[in-house]
Amino acid sequence: MISSQDVKVLDINAEFFGTSTDRLMEEAGRQVAQFINEQYKNQTILVLCGLGNNAGDGFVAARYLSKKHTINVFLFGDEKDIKTSNAYNNYKKLGSHPVTLYDIKSLDKIDTLIEKATIILDAMLGVGITGALREPYKSIIDKINARNDKNIVSIDVPTGMGLADSLKAHHTITFHDKKTGMDPDRCGTIHIKKIGIPKQAETHVGPGELTVLYPRPKKSSHKGENGRILIVGGGPYHGAPYLTGLASLRTGADLVHVATPEKTASIISHYSPNLIIHSQLSKNHLQMRDVQGISNITDSIDAIVIGPGLGSEQDTYQATRALIEDISKKSIPMVIDADGLNALRNHHDIIKNSTTVITPHKTEFKRFIDQTVDQDIKKQKEQVEKWAKKLGITIFLKGPTDIISNGDLTRFNIVHNEAMTVGGTGDVLAGIIGTLLSKKVTPINACRIAAFLSGEAGNVAFEKKSFGLIATDVIDEIPGILKKYL
Hints:
Layout: H1 4-16, H2 21-39, E1 44-49, H3 53-65, E2 70-75, H4 85-93, E3 99-102, H5 110-116, E4 119-123, H6 137-145, E5 151-155, E6 171-175, H7 184-187, E7 189-193, H8 199-203, H9 207-213, E8 228-232, H10 239-251, E9 255-259, H11 262-271, E10 276-278, H12 291-297, E11 303-306, H13 314-330, E12 334-336, H14 339-343, E13 356-358, H15 362-369, H16 377-391, E14 394-397, E15 402-405, E16 410-413, H17 425-438, H18 443-465, H19 471-485
């Protein structure tokens, strides 16, 4: 069973992995027509069509059905109002078939069309409808629901499913899988049809994650409402927390704070005036006496990234664990990366059942779980799922094929390139994930979005810089990827 959001993700990813929306629409409509042809003979069918891709499925079905039935198509608008090119093209094809077309200007004929119909094919509104049904949809659905002499067939989901005024269907032809909320009371008999969605569209991340799941800021929003993030890092290394912070800003965080030892604070502040630097820490590396001061900063923070450039001093590990435990108790979402992960070895309980993402590569994961990581990708997947479920967190295992899992949902990612093994790209990924968490995206969805956004930015950078690619090249391309897909 899949949600309305993931239906949209699936459609976009299907095209990315090689199956066009036009092809999916053609097969969906053909499957609907085939079902009706198998169940009914010589019928008068009224196809009720909205203005989106659900209507496009209806137009295709009407074309196939016109060979064996009398077909009337009613469009809830004018043809110029059809929202997608795929649906519009299929509407225009009906002109060369024995189909009678009506649009919203013929609304006064709808009672007659309903009366004459023996089958009503519902292609009005698809998944994800919220609020209340608008007119004339509501009135027409009320008319149809009041009849008991019509066979009602819905495409994908009955119009208004989940709302008080939804259509009651006798049959629902749904595609790929059941949709969340489907039940016999509203859907009648549910028939699942495969329409050629490629397997990778369901198992791998793609542009659908970014397009559908990224939280677009409201026009009325104010500074700080679209993500306040804190990066805890630096000491031995100053580049890592800077890269994480810059990636956070480029991903759309409103405010990026960096808590870093005195030694690196001045260096990072000279890199960029866009970062808010907190330098009241120990001179050379994070220590226990710094934990309370950082904890005070977290009171006005939406998400935290811990680890970039922290180093491997034992007192730094101790302070890192204390800070992570404090953040876990406050239920603030966090990303733990690099040296932050090393601090957690044999101390997993402090992140158990928290809103945490860890982002190890294979060697870091081996240290973290104190087990050999299998070479086989399927067995790696089982290990990641096992540990994600055991700890109640989300794991992003980086590799030639990334594995992302929260123990219940797992996705692979292959959108990246071999030049992205350069130092700093992991810091960039951590900043992207942290920003998405600060925008109230769930950990698993933050990782799904970040995998594509980081990887696609890296691919664009690779086209320009080849094997000379560096981490800042990836950061520079993030805004272009956001612009392209949002």
